[in-house]
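Protocol step 4 of 5: obtain the predicted structure for the target chain.
Materials: sequence only (see below). No template structures provided, no constraints applied. The aim of this step is simply to have a reference model before the mutagenesis design in step 5. Sequence pasted as it appears in the construct record:
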Amino acid sequence: MLTLQPQSPTPLVTQIVDGVRRLIEEGVLRAGAKVPSIRQFAHAHEVSVFTVVEAYDRLVAQGWLVSRPHSGFFVRRRIAATPGPTPLAAAAGGAASFDAMWYLRKIFENRHLAMKPGCGWLPGDWLFDDGVRRSLRALAAEDVDLGGYGDPKGYPVLRQWIRDGLAQQEIATDVQQVLLTQGSSQALDLAARRLVRPGDAVLVDDPGYANLLFSLRFAGARLAGVPRTPAGYDLAALERQIVAHRPKVFFTQPRLHSPTGSVAQLAQLHRVLQLAEKHDMLVVENDIYADLDPEPRPSLASLDQLSRVLHVSSFSKTVSPNLRVGFVVAHPDLVEDLAQLKMISGLTSSEFGERLAYGALTDGRWRKHLKALRERLARAHERVAARLAGMGFEIFCEPKAGMFLWARHPALPDSGPVSNKAAECDILLGPGHLFDPALAPMGWMRFNVAFCEDERIFDFLQRQAGAG
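Step 4 output (structure tokens):
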């Protein structure tokens, strides 16, 4: 039914995607038909399982297939396109029917790989493990009521601590404007559910925060990318996108941006807010890497004072990702709406986890831990950037802070197949298409400097670049 050409210059992943899509368009594969499992397809066509995973990933993301848990993959029933130009159609990538479960499984299924330079978290021994353990012992000694659900907005004492910390960042807020969430992912999801309706145009960073992009596609948003530059934003492109698409909201990550590591400058933040005011647009600021930044910087929220900005952050990157404690602060009316959505979808967040996080954050060694972590990341940035540059990689920018470097090699135009080969060598890479609003293949890759200590990673990249 499908013939692959291993000797063709066209990557096998692209051949599979194009071939399956053609079979669907020609009616050979009809809506609802089950396609071979990943392992069946790999065995029948004598290709790598990871090659088929990548191809199915793209077919699901583009809306041609749907993944059903415990059942397999099926041809998705496609809705005929409405006539007329749709500038955001390509960026939507089958947005309204995107299977988020498939994406999340794809991201986390390879956590077992020994080397993880493409992951989005810190190694366990870089986190505040001792502080969490001390907090756990202290919490175990308390007479904690485990019989209730807790406050709908989250543990009040931690919310007060967050309010005081935001005041030091010149964000004036009331404790009632602080909503605790299950990590920043839930905070962003609540914001998307409150602010975005199917078919709405939404501005996002390009490249952008992968989890958010897939969440917005699932919500049916039409994504309009705002190009990132080494210094932050392409402001001219931002204004063009606003005028062309009249978005209701801009989801962005000004500081230590994932995946590029870039930091938007003060003048750019002012301009973003000017455009938001002029065009009646809200801004959701994802500031989850603030604690990793050694420089005190203004945020969109500090400049706007939560008039048009919803400010999201988390303790997952510095305390522990397993605690799943994040927060969002916003205008009082919006916070009440978000709290309602939180209750509808999952009742309260875990007060036990929030108490545990609070104990770690108020531990006397917390600030010392942050200082040491920032210094360790700075050293890792210098070392990894030097290695990649010495191998001929182009590095987007060198922030010397945060977790990520964004880089590409001229001999590797598509990082997708490279990532598949890496998985076969026990290496988890971060291919660029995951961070692209249009899911377009590209050579860029995200490198987590904290996970780039193993020389086998660079040996693998060197072999691939030489072969390319």
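Step 4 remarks: The first strand starts at residue 34 and ends at 35. Confidence is low (pLDDT under 50) at residues 79-104.
Proceed to step 5.
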